[in-house]
Specification:
Length: 344
């Protein structure tokens, strides 16, 4: 991936989020006026955070690319950021058009990146560019058919196609003929319904949290009445404990960012606050230093007796050690127990 690709991806995603809320500044003001003050404040804070994240990513890329010396021997000097807080980013009139500009950069410079085609799918589905969205799906399947996001796009696309009305115009009939010809070439769908395809994906990747989450989400897309089953699918996931190099104890297989994604899925997509709360409590045990889950050793609990204890026993190292409740601890009373049986 090219050096600037990360900032392009973040910028593109920011514009997509802006498009998904208000489609223009004027429409956004009209919609915002209908919301209670607390909700308005929350939305503004979220937008600023997204813009800030984008600018920070760009700054890091600039620092890494401008910190060296050019071929002429002159040291590169970082230019001042004209929009340090992302205010201009929030004021664009056509976020989807802006997202498309960054997408073209990614398609030109990172054509074999999965993220490029994920963004292509999202942009073209919003623009109702069906054939371009199909092209993105085919690229995702080619690059990594087993990726949870590739699976999401595959199911979403053909579910959308299945809900479309019969073609009337010549252009619509032409598009439909391409879809009918291309659909059977995707092996995941051959001879199966979308529900069967989703179940097959679960059977193949049932031990993975992220794959289970993708299946659960698509289960609700295909049949909203299966929400309870989808929630259970996530909550029944097992955080297997795996060894690290044999002598250094064990860690849980779940990653913090994966658990955060599952929590957001439960709370904002499946909209089950109770399940989201249970998940948060569970993950706080696996990630005691996580401020997101308000773990007992995190800065979110600064005055907790647990926090003080953690600081002492962990010898002042507040890292996100992915140690589960049943995992073997590396530290006990300030000693590295994991090394006691180590032989050289």
């Amino acid at each position: 991936m090219v050096p600037n690709a990360v900032s392009w991806i973040l910028t593109c995603r920011c514009y997509l989020k802006l498009y998904d809320s208000p489609k223009s500044t004027a429409e956004g003001d009209e919609e915002m006026s209908k919301l209670p003050p607390s909700q308005k404040k929350k939305i503004r804070r979220q937008r600023k955070a997204e813009a800030r994240a984008k600018k920070e990513a760009e700054s890091k890329n600039e620092e890494s690319s401008s910190g060296g010396v050019s071929k002429s021997g002159k040291r590169n000097v970082k230019t001042a950021d004209p929009d340090p807080h992302g205010e201009k980013l929030l004021q664009v009139e056509d976020p989807l058009s802006e997202a498309s500009k960054y997408l073209r950069l990614l398609q030109k410079n990172s054509p074999d990146s999965l993220e490029t085609h994920l963004l292509s799918f999202e942009v073209n589905m919003r623009k109702q560019k069906i054939l371009l969205a199909l092209q993105a799906v085919k690229q995702l399947v080619r690059l990594d058919a087993e990726n949870p996001d590739s699976h999401r796009c595959l199911i979403k696309f053909f579910h959308k196609i299945g809900s479309m009305s019969s073609p009337i115009t010549y252009a619509e009939k032409l598009v439909w003929s391409v879809l009918e010809a291309e659909g059977p070439t995707i092996s995941q769908l051959y001879g199966r319904s979308l529900m069967e395809t989703n179940k097959s994906f679960l059977d193949k990747h049932g031990v993975s949290l992220m794959h289970r989450a993708a299946v659960a989400e698509m289960m609700c897309v295909l049949d909203p009445s299966k929400k309870a089953e989808a929630v259970k699918l996530i909550e029944d996931s097992t955080n297997n404990v795996v060894p690290i190099n044999g002598a250094l104890g064990s860690v849980s297989s779940w990653k913090l960012k994966e658990c955060i994604a599952a929590h957001q899925l439960l709370g904002t997509v499946l909209v089950d606050p109770d399940a989201a709360f249970r998940w948060k409590v569970r993950c706080a045990e696996y990630f005691p230093y996580s401020t997101y889950f308000e773990g007992k050793c995190s800065s979110a609990m600064p005055n907790s007796i647990y926090n003080q204890t953690c600081k002492k026993t962990e010898n002042g190292s507040p890292s996100h050690r992915e140690v589960g409740p049943n995992a073997t601890s590396l530290v006990s009373n300030g000693k590295l127990e994991g090394f006691k049986d180590l032989t050289i």
